[in-house]
Specification:
The structure is a single chain. By secondary structure, the chain is α/β, with parallel strands linked by helices. It is built from ten helices and nine strands. The strands form two sheets. The protein has a five-stranded parallel β-sheet, sandwiched between helices. α6 links the parallel β5 and β6. α5 crosses α6 and α5 packs across α10.
Amino acid sequence: MDRINNLLGLRYLSKEQIEQLLDKSDHFRKMIDRNDTPKQPTKPSRILNLFFENSTRTRVSFELAAKMLGHSSVNFTGEGSSIAKGESLLDTVKNLEAMKFDIFIVRHEVPGVPKLISETVQGSVINAGDGAAEHPTQGLLDILTLKRSFGRIEGLRVCIVGDISHSRVAMSNIHGLTKLGAKVSVCAPRPFLPSAIEGLNVDVYEDIDDALKDHDALNLLRVQLERDAGRLLPSLREFNRFYGMTLERLSVNPKIRILHPGPMNINVELDSRIAESKNSLIFEQVTNGLAVRLAVISEFAERKVK
């Protein structure tokens, strides 16, 4: 298998590389369930969490994973840094690299920034979300959640519902799931569909009830109001009426499993009761997110020692 030097997106990984990361993630998930302590490194890595956007689950799980693995982790935010004084992004990164970090975990609102940083630094770069491009560890944790729930990915029917056009999560799921043999569809109002969606080897649904009937799982995406997604709709109430997941809609397919990457907009893309229902895998996703980030950090840290 080809070596993974950086984790910039699932579109750049082969099926075998994705499967290797999933196997490693499943190993760490079992370790979490047993409350075991991961083996501590003889030479800890220096990890920089370089977050230019707000985050809860991604950032905290990366921080916790680094600590559980015995590495040194430092947090950086653009707010309050010298970027506010006019220092460029790359100058900031070069100065931080001079402190000899081994792994850079990058979140930025502009697509391509993690790749740009990977071409600038000597250490490994992990994309923690770049604009609407990709969010590879979220894609991995969603796939891990489905695999643990259904026992397989090949042949699984998965529909991604909601704000596809603004979603890096959707892109990572589409690239990862299709490479592993799943049948992927999207369901959204036309303004929420990228113009090139047909080129991604997915089916397009306009009716969520039809999507419910035809799929094993739905991955619900929030309406990204911070990216002005709301202006593409008549109202959020209208979105909820036609695309929101409710307990009543579950009767269309009582066996459907529901995922959501968070944060959730309650009573927009889903009813508050959905997250707590027996169909929900939402909190499983959060635990699997920690497992995936343990696996990814471990993958790059182990190679540093070798």
